[in-house]
Amino acid sequence: MTGMLRAALVLAMIATPALAKEAVISSKPIIIAHRGASGERPEHTLAAYQLAIEQGADFIEPDLVMTKDGQLVARHENDITGTTDVSRRKEFADRKRTKTIDGVSYTGWFTEDFTLAELKTLRAKERLPLLRRGNTKFDGQFEVPTLREIIALAKAASAKSGRTIGIYPETKHPSYFASIGLPMEALLVAELKAAGWDRADAPVFIQSFEVNNLKALKQLTQVKLIQLMAAEGGPADAAQPSYKAMATPDGLKAIAAYASGVGPQKDMVVAGGGTVSTLVADAHAAGLKVHPWTFRAENYFLPSGLRKGINPAGHGDIGAEIARFLAAGVDGLFTDYPYLGVQARDRHSR
């Protein structure tokens, strides 16, 4: 990070108390930059978030994990083997571990075994190099950012652009981190409060695949909470038997007692062939917003009817896919390509 950018971010944080009110975010469906503009820059880097903002994203999404010294940083997982150059750093060779996290065994390097200062010596790399070869040219250029730096970036960009850029953090493996003495909830709320974002109208959503984590946050903050759901399985904290049960009308009513919305895997809303489920209608009936994930341009991730050519890394018709979901009434969506999400949203809103 350049000295000029660091100074701008620090200034934005210092200026926070003077911002009595945030600008109003558009009433249109929101475009959430999934890990930043991760289709075009290595995910969870300030460069990816900055590009997402320039492309018109309403929110930038950091997945949050903990460091050894109790700091929140943005990584897709606490296993950083595939997203940093740690495996090539001889000084950290002895940090390699095998751990069981949420019932699954992983071997690699983990954020909770590094201090923030140590993590800052690492450099990010592209997580999907076979599908996103263009991103690999940025390998080794960017640091692992902290939540505080991401908030400062969003605030500085909001002040410069005149529109509000919010953040949409996900707490990753909160039960696991609590089990090793690194609980996330109070620290996350404290960081948001320091930024002046501790109100119900703050430009923030906090999301989690777990349930008790969100219920604990409900007691600590007025910030909007989102219950994430996958098409299979259930919460790692076993607070509910399955996501499918949570997606029923009764399950959604229960979620509404502690959350403002749901973030379902996209096939739970519209199946690959275009069949629309009742999830949006049922969620709206319960008073919940619906923000499905994740919309990606590569053929590999698209339904067969929307692919172009046979190259898995080639881009298909993501705009048509997003249009299906907007027609189904979703309130926002996560995408690796924010500008394509904005274009599709704006076409739908005409």
The low-confidence parts are 1-24
Strand content: 5-15%
The SS-based structural class is alpha/beta
Provide the helix percentage.
25-40%
Quickly describe the structure.
With 350 residues, the chain is α/β, with parallel strands linked by helices. The chain is 29% helix and 13% strand.
Description:
- With about 350 residues, the protein is an alpha/beta fold.
- The chain is built from twelve helices and 13 strands.
- The strands form four sheets. The protein has a four-stranded parallel beta sheet, with helices on one face. Strands 9-10-11-12 form a four-stranded parallel beta sheet. A three-stranded mixed beta sheet has the order 4-3-8, covered by helices on one side.
- Helix 1 (about 5-15) packs across helix 4, helix 2 (about 45-55) packs parallel to helix 4 (about 145-160) and helix 11 packs across helix 12.
- The longest helix is centred in the middle third of the chain and has 15 residues, at about 145-160.
- The protein is globular and about 55 Å long.
- The N and C termini lie far apart (about 40 Å).
